[in-house]
Amino acid sequence: MTYLPRLLASFLALGCPLVSALAFPGAVGFGSVATGGSTPFTVTSLADSGTGTLRDAVSASGRNITFAVSGYIVLQSPLSLSSSTTINGQTAPSPGIGVMGREVSASGKSNIIIRNLRMRQGNMDSDTGKSAVNFGKATNVILDHCSVEYGIFDGIDAVGAVNVTVSNSIIALPIGQQFGAHLETGPATWYRNLWVSAHNRQPLTKANTQFINNVVYNYQAAYTVANTGGLFSHDIIGNYFIAGPRTTSASDDYFQINANQKVFASGNFLDSNKDGVLNGAAANSVGSAVVLSSPWNSGSTGLATLTAAQAFTSVLANAGASPRDQVDAFVVSTVQSLGTSGDIITNQASTGLSNNGYGNL
C-alpha cells in the first residue's frame, strides 16, 4: 500500500504537523491544526449584543458560525471569543461581514478559526492598550482571508501564542503605535499576506517562523526580531519588500536581527527606488543572523510555490476578505502606486474614506 506515504508527504509539503484533518481545505502552516467548532450557529442580527448576534454566537465554545446578514457590526466593547470556535465570514451575503470599533480577542483560548472577517478597530476604541486582534497566549489559531486595519496597539497581538497561521490576509494602516503584528512563542506561519503602511512589526516575530510569499509596502521597518535574547529559526522565502513614501531606510526590510537568530532567506526581493515600477533586486542578506543552507522547517519549500514577483500579483489579487470592500480597495491601490503613494496614519479618517474612514459595507 502506497497511499500512506503519499498522505504523509502531502502534510509535510503543507508545512503543518501531522493531524487527522486540516482546519479547512487549503489551510497551511502551524495553525492548520486548529479544530474550530462543530455546532451550527447562524448570526441573524448586526446588533452588538442579544439573541442572534455575533457576540451571542461566540459566547459558548464549540460553535461553527455562519451569517445570514451582511454589513458592519459596531462593537461597544471587546468581542471575546470562546475556545473551539469557527467564524465563517465567507458565508455572509454580499458585501460581506465586518466588525468595527473594538478589539476581537481570543486571549488564552484554543482552536480558533477565523475566515473572511473584516476587523477594524480604529479610534472609536478609547482603550489605546488594545489591538485589532488579540491572540495572546492562544493555542492553535488560524486567520485566513481576513482584513485587519486600524489597530491601535498592534494590528495583531499574539504574545505567548502557540501554533499560529495568518494567511491570505491584509494587515494594514495601524494607528496609535502604528505596528503591524507582534508574535512570541510560536511556531508561526505568515503566508501570502499584504502588509501596508506600518512603522514597524511586519511582523515582529520572536518564534520559530515561516514567512513565505508576503508583500510588505511602505514600511519603516518590516521583518523584525528586535535583537531578542531568544534563539529562533526563520524561513523567509519569496517575499517582496517595496519602499513607499514613508520608508526612510529601505535597508530596514530586515530589522534588528542579530547573531542569535538562524535564517534561511531565499528568493526575496526589495524594490527601493519608489519609481512607480516593480523592479526590485534580490534581498537575502539578513542582518548578522546565522545563515542556514536549507529551511529549518521541512514544509517551507512546499509552501513557497511562488516567486516574489508572482507573490506580488497573487497577493494583491487575493488577500483580504472577499468581496473586496472600499477600505481594502484603498489599501491595494496604495500598493499599486509602487512607491509614489502611501502614508503612515494616526486616524482612520485621514484616509478620506466614507463612514469616518471605516468605509461602508
UniProtKB/TrEMBL annotation:
Q: Keyword set for this entry?
A: Glycoprotein, Lyase, Metal-binding, Signal
Q: Do the record's keywords include Protease?
A: no
Segment forming the signal sequence: 1-23
GO molecular-function terms, A-Z? lyase activity; metal ion binding
Query: What name appears for this protein in its UniProt entry?
Result: Polysaccharide lyase family 1 protein
Entries under Gene3D superfamilies matching the protein: Single-stranded right-handed beta-helix, Pectin lyase-like
What PANTHER family does UniProt report for this protein, alphabetically?
Answer: PECTATE LYASE C-RELATED
Per the record, the coiled-coil ranges are none
